Amino acid sequence: MSAPAPVDRLPAPQRSGVGEPASDSRPLAPRLLALGLALIALLGIASSITPSLRERNDVLGSLVPGEIRTVAAGATLAISIALLIVAGGLLRRRHRSWQAAVVMVAAVAVLHVVKGLDLEEASASLLLLAGLVIWRRDFDVEGDPETPATFRRHAAWALAGLLVLGFLLIEGQSLLEGDLLPPVQATVELLHNTFGLGPERLEGRGSTAVSRAILLYTLVAAGWLLFLWLKPRRQYVRQHARDRADARRIVLETGTDTLDYFALRRDKDYFFTHERDAFIAYRVSGGVALISGDPVGRVSACPELLRSFVAFGHRHGWRIAAIGVGPDFVPTYEAAGLRTVYIGDEAVVDPREFTLEGRAIRKVRQSVHRLHKAGYTVQVLRRDEVTPELLAGLLRVSQLWLGGQPERGFSMAMDDLWASEHGSALFAIALAADGRPHGFIHFVPVPQARSLSLSAMRRLPDTPNGLMEFLLCETFAWGREHGIERVSLNFNAFGELLRADEEELPAWERGLKSALTRADRYFQVERLLGFNRKFFPHWEPRHAAFERRRDLPLAALVLLTAESLVAFPQALRRLWRRLLPAVQ
């Protein structure tokens, strides 16, 4: 891999092409400097809360007023705590974190001298500062280009808020105790309280509360501005017409995996080979580049494509993770430096083998007979065969089922069931005796494998039990007549564990199985497994991939959020988007 470009010349993200050749080697300096910064921070915290040596205090007493030394001790504590946050970004080679570290380490070195003539701590800080300057080119991960303007705007609002709040509190307290303070004296009082020196001219029982409120506002505003400055580059999903057309062409010409068609969702970005004969579909959230399924396209190009994507993500400071990795691609992901872990199974039915005969499947057979007797019939139509009137009925079913919630899913669901561009998608529609649709199942094609992949199941709330089983059985019959060899049903998280005999499991796996069973009311893991088992499917394993063990909690949270298995309130989602990337 060629040497990293200086941060002021770092190229913009190349969503449509392969970046530099991948390399597993990473500079050692950022890790050492991040460790050093954390140690300097802990040293600063300890130094600020312990008394200085008496001999040094005697020397300082004649040079620096006591109030200034008090401010310096408080500032050392606050900056040292902030340095612990900055150390995380330094480890990720973020240039903005390097800038913040240089400024704050230099400030801490001076403050150590001012607060207690702590020359040892100041020397250690200066030594670290020299290392930051020497290895500055290793910190080449650029930040969000929108941050400087946002930072200036928020800094102006924070200063305005400090002035308004400070003068209101100070003059209000002075008015309660007698007369208003003159503007000059009020300004001095505000500065005094901003730096934590406490009331100077204010009197009365409320003066201490006023001082603490101003100091608290200052600390919160400073922390917020630090978060803004450290925020990494955001990745916006912008599918250009050429990219989408090429992705669609590759899926239709080479798609053999049951998840390939889901790469055509509009909430995913694309990363292509130079020849544009293979691509990766992904989305960036919370500083994690989450790959959806396996690379799609020419198989021989996929290993280099994946390595190049990992290098591309590292240049932008992203963690790399993947969901829905098929067993054939596990070695490819591991060769690119990612760890893989089993997360569940895909239930796949062969319509040619499926039958309603036999005692084991009698409950499904009874559901099918009951729906037939109730006058239900099934139509299996391509999207481009659905009439406008029938489409309106399907939309009504979907809207009632969703109840105002948006479409969900990421790696195994479509974001738009109705788009005309997905004309080859399949609807299995349950029609009541009056000819109106009461439910449907949506499938996407697997273009080069004579297969279907389930995308969504919807029904009216008052439909008879067993409607979905009825629809699937009729779809299997249709597929048998039309040469369909595989129908992929739902994904079952931890299916191997849930299907296992509990007596044969070790203690920790029994505990995990019990926890999953208890969580079924929220995630429907066990109920979905029970539904799929009715059709005696083949179980095909799926994996997740991630880089380092310490990345797993964040990658798992991003994965669950993308799949809508964890849904946060809107206010928390806004905080997630704003705050979480800043602490990567």
Put the structure in a nutshell.
49% of the residues lie in helices and 15% in strands. It starts with 28 loop residues before the first helix and ends in a 5-residue tail after the last helix.
Helix/strand class: alpha+beta
The CATH architecture classification of the largest domain is 3-Layer(aba) Sandwich
Count of domain modules: 4
Distance between the termini: 25 Å
Question: What Rg is obtained from the alpha carbons, in whole angstroms?
Answer: 31 Å
CATH classification class of the largest domain: Alpha Beta
**CATH superfamily of the largest domain, called what?**
Gcn5-related N-acetyltransferase (GNAT)
Strand share of the residues? 5-15%
Number of helices: 20
**CATH fold call of the largest domain:** Aminopeptidase
* Total E-strand runs: 12
Low-confidence stretches: 1-24, 567-573, 579-584
What is the overall pLDDT average?
A: 83
Percent helix among the residues? 40-55%
Name the shape in a single word: elongated
